[in-house]
């Protein structure tokens, strides 16, 4: 049976690396993986969405609407923008943090984390809200948000922890391996 995982955020947050780690983890388990990124204006803080499909009955790298088993969102507003991909009561891992769009400073309209999270909870009863700012402060690095969210994703059972550890060893620079493993196992 296929596993469909959607990862979303904004440029520079590490969403593409997170997708590569999940893909490598599945490959390490001998599974077929199809993956695609839509990055648009990512270098300017724009949306980044990665589709990861795992299993022999996947024939396209893009997840059909209403078929994602797991949404990993690096930013709460991006989670809401992409919730139409979710199956009913799919697992949602969402970073509490909101990155206000540039247009917010021009228009004076801002997004509220609580409103975004409440909207997600209307769609799924399986929403885990992660405070990555606090975890990053405790681990003394702001460059591990992706690994913190991957650790939370592993706790859903949809992504295998040991295979993710092995994928991190392959894809992350050796100097950052131990920090990423600590982030992967961080308890919220």
Question: Could you name the key traits of this structure?
Answer:
188 residues; alpha/beta; 6-stranded mixed β-sheet; 8 helices; 6 strands; globular
What do you see in this structure?
Helix content is 39%, strand content 22%. It is of the alpha/beta class and 188 residues long. Strands 2-3-1-4-5-6 form a 6-stranded mixed β-sheet, with helices on both faces. The two termini are 30 Å apart. The model has no long low-confidence stretch (mean pLDDT 91).
Please sum up the structure shown.
The chain has 188 residues and is α/β, with parallel strands linked by helices. It has 8 helices and 6 strands; from the N terminus they run βαβββαβααβαααα.
**What ranges have pLDDT less than 50 throughout 5 or more consecutive residues?**
none
Backbone structural class: alpha/beta
Reported for the largest beta sheet, the result is: 6 strands, mixed
Number of strands: 6
Radius of gyration: 16 Å
Could you tell me the mean pLDDT? 91
Proportion in helices:
25-40%
Number of helices: 8
**What is the H/E order?**
EHEEEHEHHEHHHH
Query: What percent of residues are in strands?
Result: 15-25%
Strand order of the biggest β-sheet: 2-3-1-4-5-6
Distance between the termini: 30 Å
Shape assignment: globular
């Amino acid at each position: 049976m296929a596993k469909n995982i959607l990862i979303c955020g904004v440029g520079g947050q590490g969403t593409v690396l997170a997708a590569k780690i999940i893909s490598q983890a599945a490959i390490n388990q001998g599974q077929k993986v199809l993956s695609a990124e839509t990055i648009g204006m990512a270098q300017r803080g724009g949306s980044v969405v990665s589709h990861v499909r795992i299993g022999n009955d996947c024939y396209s790298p893009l997840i059909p609407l209403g078929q994602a088993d797991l949404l990993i969102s690096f930013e709460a507003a991006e989670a809401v923008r992409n919730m139409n991909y979710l199956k009913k009561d799919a697992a949602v891992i969402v970073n509490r943090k909101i990155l206000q769009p540039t247009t917010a400073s021009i228009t004076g309209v801002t997004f509220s984390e609580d409103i975004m999270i409440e909207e997600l909870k209307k769609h799924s009863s399986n929403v885990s809200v992660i405070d990555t700012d606090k975890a990053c402060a405790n681990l003394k690095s702001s460059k591990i948000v992706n690994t913190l969210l991957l650790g939370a994703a592993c706790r859903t059972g949809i992504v295998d922890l040991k295979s993710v550890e092995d994928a991190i060893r392959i894809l992350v620079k050796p100097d950052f391996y131990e920090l990423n493993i600590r982030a992967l196992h961080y308890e919220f």
